[in-house]
Design brief:
Blueprint (H helix, E strand, L loop, with lengths): L2 E3 L45 E2 L9 E3 L3 E4 L5 E6 L6 E8 L2 E9 L7 H14 L3 E7 L2 E11 L5 E13 L2 E9 L5 H12 L2 E2 L25 E3 L16 E5 L1
Parallel strand pairs: 2-12
Antiparallel strand pairs: 1-13, 3-4, 4-12, 5-6, 5-14, 6-7, 7-11, 8-9, 9-10, 10-11
């Protein structure tokens, strides 16, 4: 696991969760060979973020991660999760004050949102593995408050809370997973909810099957230089995909 931090400041340990939750099966109901540039996506009415790149003209500073632009928050740690087998960046995690927000972006159909069906599949997966999930209203619409099964240091089965939030956009979908205090404490969740709402999605015009993971990249040369650190997080962050190496940046 490769960890990098900016500025040499050691962040506090994060109360985050790792467990095995299966990613929903990627089933295409769209033609990935269709030239997306020749099809006009259906308009998506939005009253709040995350935003499409075509809908944003503010000057809010954001970290460029390829398919998503993430607002910078003082004191946050940005962790890029890399698939060991493919060396592809699979997710970005923002750690702040004992909580974590994991973000992934996916392609979506031109006409319909996919959060409703994905939410149901996540709830079923969590339940099958011995956890529980409640479908509740939230600041971004419907969300899941889940109790994820974990193994305690004593070898017993315990549970940790996690909030699954999502937003459907024009031909894209963004999913967030809040863990740590933010999963149960509205005050702790507010700063990370603000980050999620400020995300900008750069979908591109290439044809992709629905639920195809949009390409994330490591922060570019426009960001301050990263310096290596041998420190490991006290508890790994929750990742419903197969975990890989990580790169961490502290703002």
């Amino acid at each position: 696991m490769a960890l990098f931090r900016r500025g040499g400041k050691d962040p506090a340990p994060q109360d985050t969760v790792e467990t095995e939750v299966d990613e929903p099966t990627l089933v295409s109901d769209d033609d990935p060979e269709l030239d997306a540039a020749e099809v006009s996506p259906a308009p998506v009415a939005r009253t709040g973020g995350p935003w499409d790149a075509s809908q944003v003209d503010d000057d809010l500073p954001r970290v460029d991660l390829g398919a998503i632009l993430v607002p910078g928050v003082q004191g946050m740690e940005l962790r890029m999760e890399i698939d060991k087998a493919t060396n592809v960046v699979s997710a970005a995690s923002i750690l702040l004050d004992g909580s974590s927000l994991q973000v992934q972006a996916f392609a979506a159909p031109r006409t319909d949102g996919i959060w409703d069906e994905i939410r149901a599949e996540i709830a079923e997966s969590v339940t099958q593995q011995g956890g529980s999930a409640d479908d509740l209203p939230g600041p971004f619409g419907r969300e899941l408050l889940a109790r994820l099964p974990i193994r305690t240091p004593e070898g017993r089965t315990g549970h940790r809370p996690a909030r699954f939030i999502g937003a459907d956009g024009p031909r894209w979908f963004v999913r967030g997973v809040l863990t740590g205090r933010a999963a149960v404490d509205p005050a702790a969740a507010a700063p990370l909810e603000k980050v999620f709402a400020g995300i900008v999605v750069v979908r591109g015009t290439d044809a992709r099957a629905p639920r195809d993971l949009l390409t994330l990249t490591l922060p570019g040369p426009g960001n301050p230089e990263l310096t290596p650190s041998d420190a490991e997080p006290a508890v790994p962050s929750f990742d419903p995909l197969t975990r890989g190496p990580e790169i961490t940046e502290t703002r």
